[in-house]
Design goal:
With about 400 residues, the protein is an alpha+beta fold. It has one domain (about 5-395): Peroxisomal Thiolase, Chain A, domain 1 (3-Layer(aba) Sandwich). The chain contains 13 helices and 18 strands. It has helices at about 5-10, 25-35, 40-45, 60-75, 95-105, 120-135, 205-225, 245-260, 265-270, 275-280, 290-300, 335-345, 350-360, and strands at about 10-20, 25, 50, 80-85, 110-115, 140-150, 160-170, 175-180, 185, 195, 205, 235-240, 310-315, 320-325, 350, 370, 380-385, 390-395. The strands form four sheets. Strands 1, 4, 5, 6, 7, 8, 9, 12, 13 and 14 form a ten-stranded mixed beta sheet that branches. Helix 4 crosses helix 5 (about 95-105) and helix 7 packs across helix 8 (about 245-260). It is globular and about 60 Å long. Bound molecules: coenzyme A (COA). Coenzyme A binds next to helix 3 and helix 7.
Length: about 400
């Protein structure tokens, strides 16, 4: 195929599947513990519950659980690259994707890499994948976003934790969404959210982060239009990164204002109301969040076939990208709506004491032989840490 023809091939998201955790903490339980009005959580930040990993769950088990149905449906042929994006990395050297590659039984002729830029990295992975598929449309790339969002107990960020993984198969002639050029890009060196290597919980300046996010919305949209992107009114819906779902509303109001539109709340709800359904009950899943917004939109909307959707991917620190995709006619035959709802509904609620114990749980760093309590009913589990090596198994 000539370079020009390859460039014209439609590429995008062929399949999308997500997984989350064994446990869930309702925000009413957190509110009762710290004396907060539950309305602050439900309406002020737009969160009703957050996923809590079992002791034997982590970014690898969630990533493998999200990706396994994709591999079952499409096989492994043509998958020569796995990109795993995460903020909550489990190793400073080895990619979490290599464990996932092994759990999924992918072939050895694969490149596997981990990407990091706070909550943004999965979008970089998506763009890298699109480039690979454009240059060789026979290839398919597995892009996985997997994160456990963890803040200090009793800190303001505590209410905006969560955990999930989204796996996407990027391919030519995709069944769900064609991703278009151009992208609008934005980077600014800010300290709104970060996690030094010696810390398990992230540090965040909440108000700084909201401000940095809003500036990034403006900056990436400005670049998007300068690069020749679509007009705002063309989009059927907007998927935003949602550290808490009210952030999407703040971001969209900012975009409407910046574009000189009045802020019509009915329009805001119409543009993004359906995208918050999973993030609202899963909580912040960092890299996965914007793609959970897409899953919620596709799983609930009336037929969007042929309609453009806007994406705003933000990662603190900060990097943002605005890009567009067009929903592929017939996409509804390829959705995983029932499995997605089951992943949310299967979680067992925990009380506050159990949540705290899980939050504080970590392996001793002594290099000994440490067995993990068997808790998850998911398909993969972290069985032990032996001699500093993580041992995973299929349940
Ligand atoms: N009923 C309804 N709404 C209420 C309320 C009540 N009883 N009490 C407070 N609220 C509203 C506030 O008015 C505010 O709304 P606004 O932002 O529209 O003004 C909202 O609830 C939050 O209140 P606030 O006092 O700002 O909360 P906080 O100091 O606890 O911080 C966050 C909230 C979201 C900033 C904090 O949880 C945080 O920093 N989370 C991490 C965010 C993150 O991960 N950022 C990095 C990635 S982008």
């Amino acid at each position: 195929m000539s370079e020009e023809m390859a460039h014209e091939t439609a590429v995008g998201i062929h399949d999308l599947s997500f997984a989350t955790t064994e446990f869930v903490l309702p925000h009413t339980v957190l509110a009762a513990h710290n004396g907060t009005d539950p309305a602050k959580y439900h309406h002020g930040i737009g969160q009703r519950s957050m996923s809590v990993p079992a002791a034997d769950e982590d970014i690898v088990t969630m990533a493998a659980a999200a990706a396994a149905p994709v591999v079952r449906r499409h096989g492994t042929d043509g998958i020569r690259t796995v990109v795993l994006a995460t903020e909550s990395s489990i190793d400073q050297a080895k990619s979490a994707g290599v464990y996932v590659h092994s759990l999924l039984g992918l072939g050895s002729a694969t490149r596997v890499v981990e990407l990091k830029q706070a909550c943004y990295a999965a979008t970089a992975g998506l763009q890298f994948a699109l480039g690979l598929v454009r240059s060789d449309p026979a290839q398919r790339v597995l892009v996985i976003a997997s994160d456990v969002s963890k803040y200090e107990l009793d800190s303001p960020g505590e209410a905006t934790q969560g955990a999930a993984a989204v796996a996407m198969l990027i391919a030519a002639d995709p069944a769900l969404l064609t991703i278009e050029e151009p992208s609008g890009l934005f980077t600014a060196d800010v300290m709104d959210f970060w996690r030094p290597n010696y810390r398990e919980a992230a540090l965040v300046d909440g108000q700084e982060s909201i401000g940095a996010y809003l500036l990034a919305v403006q900056g990436s949209w400005k670049d998007y239009t300068e690069q020749g992107g679509r007009d705002l009114d063309e989009f059927a819906a907007f998927c935003y990164h949602q550290p808490f779902t009210k952030m999407a509303y703040k971001a969209h109001r900012q975009l409407l204002n910046y574009c000189g539109h009045g802020v019509d709340e009915d329009r805001v709800t119409r543009d993004l109301g359906l995208t918050t359904a999973y993030n609202n009950v899963i909580g912040n899943s960092y890299t996965a969040s914007v793609y959970l917004a897409l899953a919620a939109l596709l799983d609930q909307a009336d037929d969007l076939g042929g309609r453009p959707v806007g994406f705003l991917s933000y990662g603190s620190g900060s990097v943002a990208e605005f890009f567009a995709g067009t929903v592929v006619p017939g996409y509804r035959d390829h959705l995983r709506t029932a499995a997605h709802r089951a992943a949310v509904d299967r979680r067992t609620p925990v009380d506050h004491a159990r949540y705290r114990a899980l939050h504080q749980y970590s392996f001793p760093a002594d290099g000994g032989d440490h067995i993990t309590p068997a808790e998850t009913t998911g398909p993969f589990r972290l069985a032990a840490l032996r001699g500093h090596k993580r041992i995973y198994e299929t349940s």
